[in-house]
Specification:
Radius of gyration: 17 Å
Mean pLDDT: 77
Shape: globular
Number of helices: 6
Number of strands: 8
Strand order of the largest sheet: 1-2-3-7
Strand content: 15-25%
Order of helices and strands: EHHEEEEEHEEHHH
Helix content: 25-40%
């Protein structure tokens, strides 16, 4: 029982970003459906294909962020290049999977998950430095350009009642501060459709 989620966010000249993200999604899903593992080799293959297309003048300087999640039963893993962020909700606990130590425990204020534009985070210095290093080093990468080796992997458990939100900066950048996180947590018992409607009208 294998489930896969891919979310890409292209960049570059008009239409070039759409091509880059389209390649990442279609080629990535095809490879996974054919039995290829979600791993470094697949990410590098997709990046190489996008880079090759980028030699065409119309597609010059194109690339795409990509976050891929794989769920097998209660075991899940995330591979991510760029700034497509994945949030894991379990009750009142919220974890930003791209940053394994970036989490709020049950009852902790949502503000503990500060926006990416703020630093240093309100964590002990060791954790804060880890997150700052991760942000400056990994989030600037895109497929189609040299990517980090290894691509960071986060493994986590996925239980009944858990929720995943995978979002591009077109979504999380549209809300002031962390209001959208608060809306989701406050409405956590509602259906995902109802939450989406609430976010739309906010």
């Amino acid at each position: 029982d294998r489930k896969v989620i891919l979310v890409a966010d292209g960049l570059g000249r008009p239409l070039a970003g759409d091509v880059a993200s389209g390649v990442a999604l279609t080629r990535g899903l095809l490879a996974l459906r054919e039995g290829q593992e979600l791993n470094q080799a697949l990410i590098e293959s997709l990046s190489g294909e996008i880079a090759e297309l980028g030699t065409i003048k119309a597609f010059k300087e194109m690339g795409t962020a990509l976050t891929a999640l794989e769920i097998r039963g209660t075991s899940a893993r995330l591979l991510s290049v760029g700034d497509v962020l994945a949030f894991h909700f379990r009750g009142d606990k919220l974890t930003l999977l791209n940053f394994p130590d970036w989490t709020t425990d049950d009852g902790a204020p949502i503000e503990a998950l500060i926006s990416l534009s703020h630093s240093p985070p309100p964590f002990p210095q060791s954790d804060a430095q880890t997150i700052i290093n991760y942000q400056s080093f990994y989030l600037r990468y895109t497929l189609g350009y040299p990517i980090p080796r290894p691509v960071p992997v986060t493994e986590f458990t996925f239980q009944k009642g858990d929720r995943l939100l995978v979002a591009t900066d077109g979504f999380y950048g549209a809300f002031l501060s962390l209001e959208w996180m608060r809306i989701i947590v406050v409405n956590k018992k509602k259906s995902l459709d109802d939450i989406a409607e609430t976010l739309k009208y906010e």
